[in-house]
Amino acid sequence: MTPLSENPFTLGVASGDPLPDSVVLWTRLAPRPHEPGNGLPAEGAITVQWELSEDDAFRRVVRSGTAAAPAADGHTVHLDPCGLEPGRTYWYRFRAERWISPVGRTRTAPRADASVPAARFGLISCQQYDEGYYTALGHLAREDLDAVFFVGDYIYENAIDARAGARNYTEPLPEFYNHWTHTLEDYRQRYALYKSDAELQAAHAAHPWYVTWDDHEVENNYAGDVSQDNDPVDRFRARRAAAYRAYWENMPLRGPQRPSGPDLRLYRRFGYGRLAQFDLLDTRQYRSDQAYGDGWHIPGPESQDPARTITGAAQERWLLDGFRTSTATWNVVAQQVCFSQRKETPGASSRVSMDTWDGYPASRDRVLAGAGRAGVRNLLVLTGDDHTHCAYEVKEDFDDPDSATLGVEFLGTSVSSGFDGQERPEDWETARAANPHLKYYDARRGYVVVSLDPERVRGDFRTVSGVTTPGAPVSTAASFVSEAGAPGLREA
């Protein structure tokens, strides 16, 4: 077989991290996506042509060129075409020899000083391949959005059997997937499996994405250099290096995000005209180890230690400095795990999750105090991880329902993780009673559409009826609004 005797664009195309004059364009060559090496040479590079156009028929091509897809980068391409028009929709495609990729649609951000009348974004997370179909992503692809926030758990590290778990395939998957990921080849192949899904490809091709990770891109509940299973640090850092490398290769990220061994600076900031500032956080790489283990515990001296951090000191300073210099109407913090307090039961001695910001209350206090000092009036936190839809009011004192509301948090449910889910989880009444700032709670699969304008933010919580069989319809289960300058949630 010559290198490109088969279609190499089996994993689709993607774009991301839009700036006013640029956006990252991505693809990965994989003529045989379910084979180690993807059917391509282990050395060298393949030349790829690319085009960026003002129309989807490519009659008005504004940028074009060639790029290398090196074997050393898993035959991926990361382009950063500059000099584009702000707030403009473009279409792009790639060619390798006689093969042409699917067409992607993308959009640049508005000028820094632009008065943006309105914008719409998707919020998604947690797409475990073997726990359901990506039905929600197919619907997301058809939404009218300016961009998508993906806030963690793009892949999962678990073994996947030949039937692909809940997908129950009749054509078996290769045995290669039936083990946990540890090596660079493991992680590359896991991305190839996920990205072979047509609905994930459609969602990438339809919108530019801002991406950040959570834990499963490496290992469940890891914290900095600490493995969940307390593996030797050097062994875990080697695994983290492999995972970070594969993550960068497979995401629409720029060169500055290329990892150096087990280190990758993923936190970064974007403007969206005068309407919004986006701060994307990394709450995994720099955090202190979870107090009292990874689960739910009653807070105590260990979790309440002021020295504990979920962001690391440098990222925390960067975030607070960004609050101080922001002139945007909305300060949007896109990150991984529940920011608001979530008690398991009513009463002062309730357990909370040590893996969320509840396990790092000093970090949360410092962020909220810094936002207050900076005069941030419109704080919006976008979150994933929990496999539920939640709408929270961010309180000055979560134990006092009458304390000031400092912002709002939209926590989006999973794409597929957790199988079909249910409208009212078993703890629905208890959770609402224990957390009066929790205004909405739903455990079905789906995504959130976040609409921003200078006067308000609106979250439309979309759900699908199930994911263990394909083709479920989508509906809006609930919508909540918060007014600019008067944070708080009301049902729309």
Which tags fit this structure?
PhoD-like_sf; alpha+beta; 2 domains; Metallo-depent_PP-like; Purple Acid Phosphatase, chain A, domain 2; Immunoglobulin-like; 492 residues; Alkaline phosphatase D family protein; Phospholipid_Metab_Enz; globular; 29% strand
Task: Describe the 3D structure.
InterPro entries: Metallo-depent_PP-like, PhoD-like_MPP, PhoD-like_sf, PhoD_N, Phospholipid_Metab_Enz. With 492 residues, the chain is of the alpha+beta class. The termini are far apart. It folds into two domains: 1-109, Immunoglobulin-like; 113-491, Alkaline phosphatase D (PhoD) (Purple Acid Phosphatase, chain A, domain 2). α1 runs parallel beside α3, α2 (184-195) packs parallel to α4 and α5 runs parallel beside α6 (361-373). It has seven helices and 25 strands. Helix content is 16%, strand content 29%. The strands form five sheets. Strands 12-13-15-17-19-18-21-20 form an eight-stranded mixed sheet. A seven-stranded mixed sheet has the order 11-10-9-22-23-24-25, with helices on one face. It has helices at 135-141, 184-195, 198-206, 233-250, 313-325, 361-373, 428-434; strands at 13-19, 22-28, 45-53, 61-70, 76-79, 89-96, 99-100, 104-107, 119-124, 147-150, 209-211, 268-272, 276-280, 296-297, 330-334, 352-353, 379-383, 389-395, 405-411, 421-422, 438-444, 446-452, 456-464, 474-483, 486-491.
